[in-house]
C-alpha cells in the first residue's frame, strides 16, 4: 500500500509556490509599468534596465549566502526573515520618488527574493519523498513564470489602470504578508541529520565550487537562465522589427511562449523520474537550442515560427528545476544542499541574467536582432551538452538498473 502524505507538506508547497510566484511578480512586474514610471522619473533606458539587472546582483549574493546560512542555522531562521524583507521592500516600491530611490529599494527586493530558491527547494526536498521530488520541485518552480510572466502583465497593468502604479506595490505587499504569515505558522523546521560539528563553514561555501558536478550544474543553470533572459528581452523586438509583426500579435506569440515554458516546467521533471535526469537535461537542452535556431533561421511563416518558439520554451522549462534543485539534492550531502543551490543560482544569475543580456544587446547593435536569439539557442544547447557529463541519479532509474539481470559472457553459458 502507498503511504499517503499528510496535508501539511502540501500546504507548505502551496505557500512556498505562492512566495515564489510573488517573487516573479515583483521581479518582472516593474517592466510592465515602465511606460508610466520611465517618463514620470525622467529615466533613460539604461536606468530602466538597471532596475531589473541591478536586482540580479543582490539576488545572486543573497542566494548563495542565505543557502549557507540556512545549512548552518536552519531553514526557518533564514527563509521567513528573507520573505518578510521581500514583502516590505515590494510594498516600499510604491513610495519611491526617483530613479535612485527605486534602485535602492529594488536592491532590498533582490536580497529578499534571493532567499527563496535555495531555501524553499531545500525545505521541499526534506518534506517529500524522493519519488515525488521532481514533481514537487517543478510545481514550486512554476510559480515564478505563472505569476511573473503569464498572469503578471494582466494583474499589474489592470491594477495600475484602476488605481495608479504606486498603490500596486502595497497591494502586492499585502498579499505577500499573508504568505509570510502562513509560512510562519505552518512551516516547521525540517528534520536534518546535521550536528553542530557537521554544519558547513564559510570555507565549505567556497569549496563546493571545486566539485565537478557543481560546476557542471552551474553551466546548466547559466545556459538555461541566459536562454530565458535573452529571449524575454529581445524576442518582442525581433518579432516587431525584423519580422514586421504588429505589437499585439507579437504579444500573443510571447503569451504562447510563456504557456509552453510553464507546461515544460510542470510536465518534463516528472518524466525524468522514468527516463533519467541526465537524459532529460541533455535532450531538452539540445532540442530547445535546435528549435530556437530553426525559429530564427527557418524562414517560416508566423504560425510555424510560433510553434518552433513554443517547442524551444517547452523543453527549456525542465532545465531550471531539474538542474538547480533536483540534481543538487541527489548529488550533494544534505548538510550543504542549500549552499550548493545558492552557489549554482549565483553563477546562473551572474552569467545568465546579468552578463549575457548585456552582451546580447551590444551584439544586436552591431549585427542585428537575430544574433541575441541565436545566442539564446547556443546557450541552452551548451547547457544540454554539459548535462551529458553528469552521472544518473534518478531513484527509479537506478533501481531499475540494479534489478536488471546481469548477462554472463557467452562462454560461461552452459550448452
State which percent range the strand residues make up.
under 5%
CA-CA gap between termini? 43 Å
Instruction: Work out the radius of gyration.
Output: 22 Å
Mean pLDDT: 85
Helix content: over 70%
Q: What is the total number of structural domains?
A: 2
CATH class of the largest domain: Mainly Alpha
The run of helices and strands is: HHHHHHHHHHHHHHHHHH
Structural class: mainly alpha
What CATH architecture of the largest domain do you see?
Answer: Up-down Bundle
Q: What's the shape?
A: globular
How many strand segments?
0
CATH homologous superfamily grouping of the largest domain: MFS general substrate transporter like domains
Count of DSSP-assigned helices: 18
Unreliable runs, pLDDT <50, ≥5 residues? 1-5, 408-415
What's the main sheet like? none
| CATH fold-level assignment of the largest domain | Growth Hormone, Chain: A
Descriptive labels:
415 residues, mainly alpha, Growth Hormone, Chain: A, 2 domains, 18 helices, 0% strand, globular
